[in-house]
Amino acid sequence: MKSSAKKIELASVDDLFSTEESRQDEQLEKIQEIPLSELHPFKDHPFKVKDDDAMIETADSIKKYGVLVPAIARPLPDGSYELVAGHRRRRASELAGKETMPVIVRDLDDDAATIIMVDSNLQRENLLPSERAFAYKMKLEAIKHQGARTDLTSVQVEQKLSARDQVAKEAGERSGIQVMRYVRLTELIPELLDMVDEKKIAFNPAYELSFLKPDEQQMLVETMDYEQATPSLSQAQRMKKFSQDGKLSEDVMLAIMSEEKKSDLDKVTLSSDTLRKYFPKSYTPAKMQETIIKLLEQWQKKRQRDQER
Fold first, then answer.
1. Which of 54, 223, 225, 279 is most buried by its number of CB atoms within 10 A?
2. Is residue 40 within 8 Å of 77, Cβ to Cβ?
């Protein structure tokens, strides 16, 4: 009878600490092998999945060791799954010839899924400005839906700041303001945003250009192609001001873009072919530079003596 009583008591304690809810959670967190064909990309996934060198290395690793970190997905009504984290691992598994990959399936609402999707990618190296821009925007909108106001007209300033500052802290940005500057880039037309990713347009000018109307941005693309130049920060700021005043015509934009940039005026370029004829063949570039500096110093001293006479 004592043995029987002890069994009943143990069962009672187990019931106390293992509720139906916790048992369901344990079941959800189980790792499942799911066919790649049933794993679909996250809607509006802002991160590019490229078949670059890093992807090939990941595929080679999966061939040898398998997928070491399970992906995260959520169930879809049709019985398939939407990937939340693990888009690169899915592609690498495909390249490695795998038919399935390990996945943790969770029931997540749109906002929770978006935050996990963004956070799982923001720690990657070499993220493109466009990837950060859309990721920050998506996360801020998810936080807003969860109750933290992030819109610029909100009177709840403290909540608004905490939302963008939260994103900044978790993403390693220096401030919430910088996060909002990235979000502004989502207002650029694709052609300009591609130029930012390709480092043809710097971040600060790009931020200013994001305030131009879409048709003005398209006009800028055509003007840049004509001038074979990209706008400096000063030029971008002036175009923004003309746009806000309703005066940014094609002629105004062309006049601004045809100016010589200060950096171009301050730069002197001499080709090696131009310099070589003044130096012995044995002179290295470093020796040539040293000689030029000495000659310039002598010339400067002579000018100073002439001016003192």
1. 223
2. no
Q: What is the mean pLDDT of residues 93-114?
A: 96
At 146 the three-state DSSP class reads coil
Cβ-contact 82, 43 below 8 angstroms: yes
pLDDT score recorded for residue 306: 67
Q: How is the beta sheet containing 100-105 ordered, strand by strand?
A: 31-35, 100-105, 71-75, 81-85, 39-40
The DSSP bridge partners found for residue 34 are 101
Which CATH number among 3.20.20.140, 3.90.1530.30, 3.30.420.40, 3.30.360.10 corresponds to the domain 29-108? 3.90.1530.30
Residue ranges of the domains in the chain? Answer: 29-108, 124-187, 189-260
* Residue 226 Cα distances to 40, 202, 210, 222, 279, angstroms: 42, 19, 21, 6, 39
Q: How far is 51 from 92, CA to CA, in rounded Å?
A: 9
Query: Which amino acid belongs to residue 121?
Result: N
Amino acid at 292: I
Alpha carbons within 13 angstroms on the beta-carbon side of residue 202 total 9
Judge whether 76 and 98 are in contact, CB under 8 Å.
Answer: no
Is residue 22 scored above 50 in pLDDT? yes
Rounded average pLDDT over 103-110: 95
DSSP code at position 1: -
**pLDDT tens digits, one per residue of 162-186:** 789 999 999 999 999 999 999 999 9
Instruction: Give tens-digit pLDDT for 4-14.
Output: 444 444 545 55
